[in-house]
Amino acid sequence: MVHPVFAHQTEPEEFVFLLLDGFTHLALSSSIEVLRVANLLSNKTLYAWSFMKMGGGSQLSSNGLETVVQSDLRDLKVGTSLYVVSGLGVGARLLKS
């Protein structure tokens, strides 16, 4: 049964995560788990998420895990909430590229 607070919601709220090279995987996992558990407990898809990267493809996190992204940053629609997931030393890596 859906909680009355969420009964009016027809479309899931979209979260788009921009993964920078060397991002902290713990930050990403913690963000997604909160959304996933909220969906589970509500018996409804309240939240949806996707990953982006500059240039598309996949992104390597600081712990060496590779995460596949769904789209390139250039595909971001106007008005979409974008959450940047970074890590230590990201500024230096961005200056190199």
Low confidence ranges: none
Please tally the β strands and state the result: 6
Q: Please work out how many helical segments DSSP would assign.
A: 2
- The CA-CA distance between the termini, in Å, is 49 Å
- Strands in their spatial order, largest beta sheet: 5-2-1-6
Shape: elongated
- Backbone structural class: alpha/beta
Overall helicity: 25-40%
The ordered H/E elements are EHEEEEEH
Radius of gyration: 15 Å
Give the averaged pLDDT, no decimals: 86
Q: Strand count, sense and closure of the main sheet?
A: 4 strands, parallel
Proportion of residues in β-strands: 25-35%
Can you walk through the features of this model?
With 97 residues, the protein is of the alpha/beta class. It has helices spanning 25-42, 90-96, and strands spanning 13-19, 47-53, 58-60, 66-68, 71-72, 82-85. The strands form 2 sheets. Strands 5-2-1-6 form a 4-stranded parallel beta sheet, with helices on one face. Strand 1, helix 1 (25-42) and strand 2 (47-53) form a beta-alpha-beta unit. The mean pLDDT is 86.
